[in-house]
Amino acid sequence: MTRSERLEQIYTIVAQIPAGRVTTYGRVAKMTDGATARMVGSAMRQLPAGHGLPWHRVINASRRVTEHGGAIDQREKLRAEGVAFDAKGRVNAELLWP
């Protein structure tokens, strides 16, 4: 599988995450043909402006938003969809998709 095919797979999966739900980089990777969690994170960073994919619904394995330049925006987008964070910044496991 080529890199571009793998990216397309990742983006197709991310596009399916419903509003108000989240998934992890690792879960997305397991749904692909050979991607790793790190590759999924890299794919999210490479999204062009105005892409429309719900990148903000992909979080890390500890069910937290990974600290990066867009972390504040990501938390705000998730809160706007009804996703709550506990005192430690984790999302409730019941919100994990699929």
Detailed description of the structure:
This is Methylated-DNA-[protein]-cysteine S-methyltransferase DNA binding domain-containing protein. The protein is mostly helical and 98 residues long. The chain has a single domain, classed as Winged helix-like DNA-binding domain superfamily/Winged helix DNA-binding domain (Arc Repressor Mutant, subunit A, Orthogonal Bundle), CATH 1.10.10. 39% of the residues lie in helices and 4% in strands. It is built from four helices and two strands; from the N terminus they run αβααβα. The protein has a two-stranded parallel sheet with strand order 1-2. The longest helix has 13 residues. The chain starts with a helix and ends in an 18-residue tail after the last helix.
Q: Do you know the CATH architecture?
A: Orthogonal Bundle
Mean pLDDT: 96
Shape: globular
CATH C-level name: Mainly Alpha
Q: Which percent bin holds the helix content? A: 25-40%
Largest sheet: 2 strands, parallel
Radius of gyration: 13 Å
How many beta-strand runs? 2
Question: Which key phrases capture this entry?
Answer:
DNA damage, 98 residues, mainly alpha, 4 helices, two-stranded parallel sheet, ATL_DNA_repair, Methylated-DNA-[protein]-cysteine S-methyltransferase DNA binding domain-containing protein, MethylDNA_cys_MeTrfase_DNA-bd
Question: Summarize this, please?
Answer:
This protein is mainly alpha-helical and 98 residues long.
Topology of this structure?
Elements: H1 3-15, E1 23-24, H2 25-30, H3 37-45, E2 58-59, H4 71-80
Parallel strand pairs: 1-2
